[in-house]
Each structure stands twice: as C-alpha cells, then as structure tokens.
Amino acid sequence: MTSSIAPSVEELCHRITALNPRSVDRPVLVYFDIIGIAWPIRCALHLKSVDYDLIQISIDQWAYRDDHGVQPVKRCFKNGHVPLYVDAETALNQSTVIMRYLAENLGLGGKTAEQRNGVMEIMSHAYDALFHWNGLLQIIVSMGVPEDVVVARRNAFMGEGFWGLATNGYANHLDAFGNYLRGNPCNSGYFVGETLTIADLHAFNVLCNWYKAFAPERFVTDYPQLDDFVQRIGAIPAVREYIENLQEPTTWFPRPDLAIRLTSAEELAGLVG
C-alpha cells in the first residue's frame, strides 16, 4: 500500500475517533463503501426518514498499514470491525445490536415480547448464514488462502464432498429461512408478526444481496417461497426507492484479488423485479 493514501486515512481516523453521543447533533453511521451487512441499518433509517450522516471507508483505507504495520482505521473501533452507529444516546459497534436498538426506536422490533424474541432469532440466523462455519463469507474471501482450500470451501458450501454432505451446505441456511417464514403463525408473508420488522430487512439483505446474488438460478428454482419473499419486500415503495437510488452497486469489495467473484451492478439490478 502506497503512502499516498495516508492523508485520507489520518483524516478519516480523526473523524471516527471524535464520534461520541456528546459530539453528534444527528445520527452517524460508519461502514464500508459497499452494501455489506449495513444494508438493513441504512434501509431502516431510510424507511423511517431519519436524517443521518454516513462515513464510508474504502478497502484501501481499511487495509492501509503505517510504518509499524498497524492498521490505523481498524484501531478506531472497539472491536476492530464496522459498522459503528452513534447518536445522542449511544455508540454501538455490533451490527445486530445496532439493528435491535434501531428496531426498538423506529417501531420495527415486534409488538410483543414473543415477537421481539422472534426478531432476534431471525437476525441471529441471518448473521450465521454469512459468518458461521458453513456461511457464505468464508468461501468468498480468497486473498492469502491456498487454492485447494478455496475450492474445498466452495464445494462444501454447495453441499458437495464430505463436509458439504455433512452440513448440507448453504441449503441448510435456506431451509431454515423457509422454516422460519412458514412458522410465523400470522401467515403474513413476513418473518415475524403481521408487519415489517428489522428481521425482514436483515433476512432480505442476506437472501437477496448475498445468497441469491451468488446462485440466482438455483435460488429461484429450489426456494421459490424465499424468492417470493425477496420480491415482496423489494416491492415495498420505500425499500424499492432505497434499492434503486441509494444503495451501493456491489455486495463485495471492488478488489477481485480479495474475493472469488464480484457481484456486478447488473446482477444486483436483476435480483428484484
């Protein structure tokens, strides 16, 4: 990494470390310049017309190391990760906790204690579908990973080979999403209760922007109920407005050396009607 990016990193770090509930006059969200796991957070804020500031980090700024081998941007966060959300009441550094906090404050968290627990259940599964031992992210990142390991991870994710057969690959997660959706006693087409919750936005992000983007034909053929859910959520006017006008054009970092594939703007545009 060249030192030419150092000034922007220094400025970025100064902005981030200055954030706290006493320093902001409106909410601030810090995340990468991709869709990623902040999609439901940003979409929820848009749905409820919340005026907020967005600080975006490029992969080059994140990966930059100083003369001591330290990543200055990464050190700006308590847990070494993004997103970070700050408003006049709190500063939160875990995506699911941010979503739960916003759900409670924006009326997207369920109407009863049982529904609120159900929302957390869906959000936890959605997080597992990306980061758990048979989640999607492990097979996407390839930089510094031996080629045979990359191939083995991909095969397992697709349900092939010993580990793929043992875990049922990504179908295990999609089966669970289907069970949760069918298990809603309200039969509303939402995951929890009779109205849209943050759980639906989180599930939509994982199902549409990650899983369907990875294998659109198989997703539509084998999981029509989940595809119907994707189409239904994507047709909500405010969600559709966000998709068409505000979200980034890619799920992955725009660095093909980092990942197996790059989801193009054209691919994402075709994921909802």
What does this structure look like?
The protein has 273 residues and is mainly α. It has 2 domains: 3-105, Glutaredoxin, CATH 3.40.30.10; 109-269, Glutathione S-transferase Yfyf (Class Pi), Chain A, domain 2 (Up-down Bundle). Helix content is 52%, strand content 5%. The protein has 14 helices and 4 strands. The chain has a 4-stranded mixed sheet with strand order 2-1-3-4. Helix 10 crosses helix 12.
Helix content: 40-55%
Please summarize the sheet with the most strands: 4 strands, mixed
Average pLDDT level: 91
**Residue fraction in strands:** 5-15%
Cα gyration radius (Å)? 19 Å
Instruction: Catalogue the unreliable spans.
Output: none
CATH fold naming of the largest domain: Glutathione S-transferase Yfyf (Class Pi), Chain A, domain 2
Beginning-to-end CA distance, first to last residue:
40 Å
Secondary-structure arrangement, i.e. CATH architecture of the largest domain: Up-down Bundle
Discrete helix count: 14
Strand order, biggest sheet? Answer: 2-1-3-4
CATH class of the largest domain: Mainly Alpha
Q: Structural class of the secondary structure composition?
A: mainly alpha
The tally of strands reads 4
Order of helices and strands: HEHEHEEHHHHHHHHHHH
Shape: globular
Tally of separate domains: 2
